[in-house]
Amino acid sequence: MRHLKKTFLVVALLGLGACTSPGQYGNSNGANMDGSDASNPSSPAYFSQTVGDRVLFVVNQSSLTDEARETLNGQAVWLNANPEYDALIEGHADERGTREYNLALGARRANAVQEYLLSKGIAASRLQVVSYGKERPVAICSDDTCYSQNRRAVTVISAGGLSS
Amino acid sequence: MNLLRKLTSVLALTLVFSAGAQSAFAQESRGPLRIEITEGVIEPLPFAVPDFVPDSAAATELAQQIGRVVAADLEGTGLFREIGKEAFIANVTSFDSPVQYADWRAINAQALITGAVSVTRGGRVTVKFRLFDVFSGQEMGSGLQLGGTTASWRRLAHKVADTVYSRITGEGPYFDSRVVFVSESGPKDNRRKRLAIMDYDGANVQFLTDSSSIVLAPRFSPAGDRVLYTSYETGFPRIYLLDVSSVQRRELGAQEGTMTFAPRFSPDGNRVVYSLSAGGNTDIYVLDIRSGTPQRLTSAPSIETAPSFSPDGRQIVFESDRSGSPQLYIMSASGGEARRISFGPGRYGTPVWSPRGDLIAFTKQNQGRFHIGVMRLDGSEERLLTASFLDEGPTWSPNGRVIMFMRETAGAGGVASLYSVDISGRNLRRIDTGGAASDPSWSPLLP
I want to staple B124 with a disulfide (CB 3.0 to 4.6 A). Which of A17, A138, B120, B418 is the partner? Predict the structure, then answer.
């Protein structure tokens, strides 16, 4: 329990300290969130820019597409190679649903990613999930070009190894 | 004091809802002056409110303001139309002089409200008022006197308007009430949200939290003294209980590794029904506030959320996608079998039981549009009251006649506002909250 709290604190510090909004909530599109060097394969920046930190979902669905599985395979390889990091998986929905339902839908999406990473051998203690429902869209227009980007789960890397 | 006690008993009486259908509004005749609300088009009843008579120069401004709030409350229902002062033949300069009915008949004012305001040292206000049925030439009910502090003058005005509204419509009052909501600012991809509280008409906005964490969907307790809401202050959605007067808050029902949201009080105010997500699955739980002990009510792999108690506390209406799309269901307050009540096209959510117990208000999403609607407990007589790009989250007025909800406009510059609509579908109005606003929850009538 103490472990989880500390991990979250570190995530929050990274989010606040290293980038201005909208860098939090997986909006960065690969910016150097933590100031790390994206050319270093062990850096969180490499994870988000090269491995790919997010997967997208079909309307009202939480099942993983083939493309999503491919991205998650890369995430699993990276997480296995970099055990000093933990991950927070954020589930999000587009704005075409009620607040409550979208929170539950975001939880389903985050869980789908978590289950997949667990199946690839990532320890449960390194993965946490949170749903933002429709509270934090990454794209703000009101048509499917934006909605399709917002129906997402983002794997946010944190320096979890510090607390263990 | 006697008069004040009389008012309390009038208010208490009108709170006992006639068990009949909502369309059979104002069944009992209260004399010739009355408004009967039916499904048809209504001709608003013309009324006049001459400036209330101040007892001193110090009371002049307050007397005018109180008269204006009374008129605005009545006009805001869509059931009344004020006749402007420019049409007046005579004015009322003394509260106790006999009413010259002919002067008011001549301008077709069917109801006349007169009043007097006095201010005492120490900041006390006294408001006296009378309601007259102009065409039958009689006073309607007896005159009343109300007292309060100068700071609470708007509440006194709302109580005057509530009494007039109740006497003429036969309905329960609702103007003397408040709304807790989420005040919004900032761009769509980084909205700042904080809890706020206001009078039902948008006046007196006060903030209850800062905007450092996302806060969602506050809900008033049945006594109006506490608020439940969801906040991300730990980084994860969790339920909080906030005391309105002290603004003290505490977390409820936290379980590590889970998310909790969509809380609502039981009618006795002792329990909270809410959603808990664990392992990707969302189910409904109920928690005793004093002991903190949660009890699981649903146990399905589908999403179960947005629970709302019936006014007698025996049943819960909620939203579930067990059929493949979100629909409305009713189950016993102790869980068990649920029966589906929504069968129309589209997706249904956020059901809220009416205070009279006879209707469920909901959000419906169909063919790219969102609606606020009402249906009976068996799903019959579904009626959509609104339509827009995004209408969501209905809340009932204390008398069950009006629904407030959130409407958000489309696009990158989309903004949320609060609206109200009569359950007949008439009288859609935007409420000026002084900024963007969402997730309203209407209090009970204030004591």
Answer: B120
B229, B230, B259: which to substitute to probe chain A, counting the most A Cβ within 10 Å? B259
Dihedral, CA of residue B438, residue B442, residue B443 and residue B444, to nearest 10: 180
For chain B, state the CA radius of gyration: 23
Per DSSP, what are the bridge partners of residue B363? Answer: B349, B372
Cα angle value B271/B171/B163 (rounded, 5°)? 100
* Residues B190, A21: C-beta atoms closer than 8 Å: yes
Q: How many domains does chain B have?
A: 2
| Per-residue confidence band for B446, with pLDDT thresholds at 50, 70 and 90 | very high
| Å between A71 CA and nearest CA of chain B | 20
Given a contact cutoff of 8 angstroms between Cβ atoms, the answer to whether A3 and A162 are in contact is no
Residues B68 and B183 in one domain: no
pLDDT in tens, B71-84: 999 999 999 999 99
Nearest chain A CA: its distance from B273 CA (Å): 14
The domain spanning residue B19 has which CATH number? Answer: 3.40.50.10070
Instruction: Identify the domain boundary among B169, B186, B220.
Output: B169
Interface residues of chain B, partner chain A, Cβ below 8 Å: 187-191, 214, 216-217, 234-237, 256-257, 259, 261-262, 275, 277, 279-282, 303, 305-306, 319, 321, 325-326, 347, 349-350, 363, 365, 389-390, 392-393, 408, 410-412, 414, 439
Per-residue pLDDT for B91 more than 90? no
Per-residue pLDDT reduced to its tens digit, B334-385? 999 999 999 989 999 999 999 999 999 999 999 999 999 999 999 999 999 9
- Indicate the residue of A4, A128, A136 with minimum beta-carbon distance to B189: A136
CA–CA separation, B322 and A104 (whole Å): 13
A13 pLDDT above the threshold of 50: no
CATH number at residue B380: 2.120.10.30
Same domain, yes or no, for B218 and B335? yes
**Average pLDDT of span B312-340:** 97
Q: Which domain holds residue B74?
A: 2-169
- pTM of full prediction above 0.80: yes
| pLDDT one-digit tens code per residue, A84-104 | 999 999 999 999 999 999 999
Interfacial residues of A (vs B; Cβ cutoff 8 Å): 1, 4, 8, 11-12, 21-22, 27, 60, 62, 95-101, 103-105, 107-108, 110-112, 114-115, 128-132, 135-142
Domains and CATH numbers, chain A: 2-163 (3.30.1330.60)
Q: Are B160 and B175 in contact (CB under 8 A)?
A: no
